[in-house]
Amino acid sequence: MTLIADDPTSAQLVSTDPRDGSQVGSWPVADQAAVDRAVAAARDAAEWWHAQGFAGRKRHLQAWKTEITEGAHALADVISRETGKPSGDALLEVVLTLTHLDWASKEAHKVLRRTKVPSGLANINQSASVGYEPYGVVGVIGPWNYPFYTPMGSISYALSAGNAIVFKPSELTPATAKWIEDAWNRAVPGHPVFSVVVGDGATGAALVHAGVDKIAFTGSPGTARKVMAACAERLTPIVVEAGGKDAMIVAADADLDAAVGFAVFGGMGNAGQTCAGVERVFVEASVHDEFLSRLAKAAAKLHPGPGASDSYGPMTLARQSDIVARQLDEAIARGATAVVGGPDSVADGYVGPVVLRDVPADCAVSREETFGPVLVVDRVADLDEAVRRTNDTDYGLTASIFTKDLAKGRALAARLKVGAVTVNSVLGFAGIPSLPFGGRGDSGFGRIHGADGLREFSVVKSVAVQTRKPMLDLLTMDRSEKDMRMTEKVLHLLHGRRGKH
Ligand code: NAD
To answer: Which residues contact 321 (CB under 8 A, 6 or more apart)?
Structure first.
């Protein structure tokens, strides 16, 4: 990514392929005025979109899905060029994302339609219902690591809930966003319900200031804090999907080969640039050495590179390599052992696989997000220690557990302070659209995906309709003594010692 700005009115954002620096595309940077125009157009379009109702919106979203599906290879190619990830990984990202778009567009009416709720004995004269209405315009701010899957987790659900979207993609991946905007304009021509504004953090800040009705932010916790502070000025609600320091727990009875396979996939796939992957592994003492030896063999086979058949690509964000290098240097200097790779693995924009053992628990690589193909493996005395250490982090996004005893896996899952747990897989929730996704602590708050994801982008409206006069007339300035005496009796019957409750 390069920002070329001879004068501020003609600034261009150039997107480049991190593998060879070749240009993927170039777009004008949206300043505050351009963002304001996009939000105003979205606001007009939002009325039309809301008026389509669930059935109309589903039809348009399905048409968009078909348009994307027909161009899936072309989209995967753009993703691959902007991020450097192998084309197979990029295609998998497209497949997973469309599953969510499909589900959200079909399920929205079931989750969000107005529903009657009990009004209670004392209010039997009223008919009560809960409905979910769109906010209006949702501003979506996205990261670069999964430039389609991640923002679409907000976009698909917010659109299905009836909102219009203005999307500010990462400055590293504008071409991917522009590709999906073009697909929208082909599928639903003439209605800018979904539009893209291109630029860096300044354009993101402009979107927050443009008076949108909700912000869906995905990125680092540091930026999340700044965005949330800006939202506070207008009390704009926000959902935050931030980073993770995800742990895997390997119990003594685990299928070690399966655990190794998933540790390598979750820790090193996409060059480790996966918020919900694996960064730490806690292994019960009796199987620690065997696990580590199998993991080392599997990780050493990986070969990063620019080709489609390479295991993974370069670091998408060049300066992320420096963070990885710094964390590795510190860990080694403080006594950690690199079982695979080491500080020399960081070279020429790529990071080779790294497996560390004996890392002091307060090292950055044990506590901060690494976002590189690095696994820190620790021996734990028992599963209680594994749970304690998994929870000993500021983050709380996901965790995984490997055990053949599924009841034990479920019981451990209940003790982990994270938003999603997988048992005997990693990232297993990613393709299950009915499962909400989100974190706690520095990993953020609020949920995308699933019914909760649809509600996240809805304003709850309660309606109480008085259908006949109440038995006791209490909401009046002329309450009678008789009604008050009766009210007291009812109170004791319902809530006092004399009552049955
Ligand atoms: P980042 O925080 O640097 O940037 C995220 C987005 O915020 C970008 O579009 C950026 O331009 C924008 N931005 C920057 N400053 C802004 C400001 N002041 N106001 C408004 N917008 C601003 O994150 P990144 O490097 O693009 O992405 C990597 C991070 O994202 C990692 O921490 C990763 O764990 C996280 N992530 C989380 C999830 C999740 O769902 N929890 C998914 C993917 C990535």
So the answer is: 315, 346, 349, 351, 372
